Amino acid sequence: MEKINGIFNGIVATIGGMIGWIWGDFTPLLAALIVCMALDYISGVACAIVRKDVSSEIGFKGIIKKILILMLVGVAHVLDAHVLNSTPVLQSAVTMFFIANEGISLVENAAGLGIPIPKKMLEVLKQLKLKGDSTEKSESEEK
């Protein structure tokens, strides 16, 4: 039993180390992205249920997209930390971009269910998306 615990602990430590290397610290931005992704997925399923249009294929594609978003954030962190040896500027920009996308999608799902959307919320999400875009553009223009 002790040997199994040692192996399990080694596996968990290895996975944790890989996650830390790929995504870095668990920042508030990363937490916000994960929350937005989960809420967007749940709201998408809710819309599909209301429309009587539930599809496991569409749901699976949604999960794959969320995984790819996390992979892109991971690539941005690796570029920042291990290639550019810089602060997480690219990772922050990519994360903000996807927070905005997920937030806008969540708002669209809510609106599709007839829920009124605060105008200020839409403005903030659009500004966040623009901020993510402009940070990416300014970094590519520097090179």
TrEMBL record:
<keyword id="KW-1133">Transmembrane helix</keyword>
<feature type="transmembrane region" description="Helical">
    <location>
        <begin position="29"/>
        <end position="50"/>
    </location>
</feature>
<feature type="transmembrane region" description="Helical">
    <location>
        <begin position="62"/>
        <end position="79"/>
    </location>
</feature>
<keyword id="KW-0472">Membrane</keyword>
<protein>
    <submittedName>
        <fullName>Toxin secretion/phage lysis holin</fullName>
    </submittedName>
</protein>
<dbReference type="GO" id="GO:0016020">
    <property type="term" value="C:membrane"/>
</dbReference>
<dbReference type="Pfam" id="PF05105">
    <property type="entry name" value="Phage_holin_4_1"/>
</dbReference>
<keyword id="KW-0812">Transmembrane</keyword>
<feature type="transmembrane region" description="Helical">
    <location>
        <begin position="7"/>
        <end position="23"/>
    </location>
</feature>
<dbReference type="InterPro" id="IPR006480">
    <property type="entry name" value="Phage_holin_4_1"/>
</dbReference>
